[in-house]
Amino acid sequence: MSDRDETASAVEIRNVVKVYGTGPGAVRALADVSLDIRDNEFFTLLGPSGCGKTTLLRIIAGFEQLTGGRVFLFGDEIEGLPPNRRPVNTVFQHYALFPHMTVAENVAFALRRLKKPEDEVRTRVGEMLELVKMSALAGRRPAQLSGGQQQRVALARALAPHPKVLLLDEPLSALDLKLRHTMRVELKQLQEETGITFIFVTHDQEEALTMSDRIAVMSDGEVQQVGKAEDIYERPINRFVADFIGETNFLGVTVESILGNRATCKMADGFAIECDAVGAPPPGAAAHVSVRPEKMTLAAPGDGGPACRVKRLVYLGTDTHYKVALADGAEVTVRVQNAHETSISFRPGDAAMLRFDAGAAKFLVD
Questions:
Q1: Residue 96: left (phi > 0), alpha (psi -120 to 50), or beta?
Q2: Residue 317 Ramachandran class (φ > 0 left, ψ -120 to 50 alpha, else beta)
């Protein structure tokens, strides 16, 4: 583990702009992006395809040139520095291993390009293969490896020259679901063991929530929100973030009153719900609130909650997702954990009552 100052900035991105082309056909990939990525941090750039996250990663690597702005690596401006002179390495989506080389030769490649002494190369290759649990397969070629094994080799090769920052461009997307889950844990463990700053690009929300120290959610070339996984999920600052991170329901309400940090709102059927007042419009205004599916439950019909009717359900083993219709026709999703030895309580067509956890409803900016 590194003993560097974890509060220091590894990468500083200042007002970065990237535009492809000129004139009416120009495409803006990044618009005034600013970020501070800390030393020894697992930082994730998260967003849908085309949001600019890979473009930003390639700018840090030196594969793309800035249209505007500045990029610093540990305090040194790196614009104009070619990729091979930047103390960063990249793990690509398809790994780009050399098919004619063995595992050990692939890992040694960058070290030999740097003209390291051969005894140092052998030692470092051994250390890296042990780190990624590939020592026993050092003599195999990439075609003889599984997808997960190839990814471990790509990681070892990228880490061998002691980069200050490791860039990872959707490296898990080619793996099957079970292996992706395993590699998430291994990637985070690897980052902690090496103490190297990891900057990870993905469109997969679960990957980001599972591994990241902090996440930057991006959309249309802009950073929407930066924060820890819990902050992003529990306190999204706008509708895009709430909708993109996990699943959420958007309910139309009218603000009835605001008292301190709590707002009372009424749904279409007149039922009142309590909301966090942050971001609330004035009393009398129409608004939308966000409620996560797991922060609602279903109960038998009666007083104390808005009436609904179950339209369909999906049994997922650990929990059941109910799609229910409210009195005004709006549909919401309710996720209920399946307790041990209990059966599903509601079936399609059943009448039910919707209950909200305390603090579940939050105002959002559209």
A1: left
A2: left
The string of DSSP letters for 51-81 reads SSHHHHHHHHHTSS--SEEEEEETTEE-TT-
| 35 bridge partner residues | 13
- The answer to whether the Cα torsion of 63, 69, 71, 77 is positive or negative is positive
H/E stretch holding 197 reads: strand 197-202
Q: Which helix (H) or strand (E) holds 351?
A: strand 351-356
| The 9-20 sheet, strands edge to edge | 27-38, 9-20, 68-73, 76-77
CA distance 66 to 85: 17
Asked whether the beta carbons of 235 and 42 are under 8 A apart, the reply is no
- State both tokens at 168: 């990872």
Place of tokens 């369909």: 312
Bridge-partner residues for 326, per DSSP?
A: 308
Q: What single letter denotes the amino acid at residue 207? A: E
DSSP 8-26: SEEEEEEEEEEEES-GGG-
Cα atoms in the Cβ-side hemisphere of radius 13 Å centred on 298: 28
Q: For residue 102, what is the enclosing H or E element?
A: none
Angle between helices 118-131 and 103-113 (to 10 degrees): 130
Task: Name the one residue in this structure whose structure tokens are 């799609």.
Answer: 323
The distance between the two most distant Cα atoms of the chain, rounded to a whole number of Å, is 78
What the block records as the tokens of 96 is 């780009």
Length of the chain: 366
Burial class (CB in 10 A: 0-12, 13-18, 19+), 258: middle
Sequence-distant (6+) residues with CB within 8 A of 199 are: 11, 37, 43, 44, 45, 57, 60, 165, 166, 167, 168
The residue assigned the tokens 């600019």 is: 52
- Residue 292 in contact with residue 247, Cβ under 8 Å? yes
Q: What is the pLDDT of residues 244-301, one digit of tens each?
A: 998 899 998 999 999 988 899 998 888 888 888 888 889 999 988 999 999 999 988 8
Instruction: Report if pTM > 0.70.
Output: yes
CB 145 within 8 A of CB 103: yes
Is the per-residue pLDDT at 349 higher than 50? yes
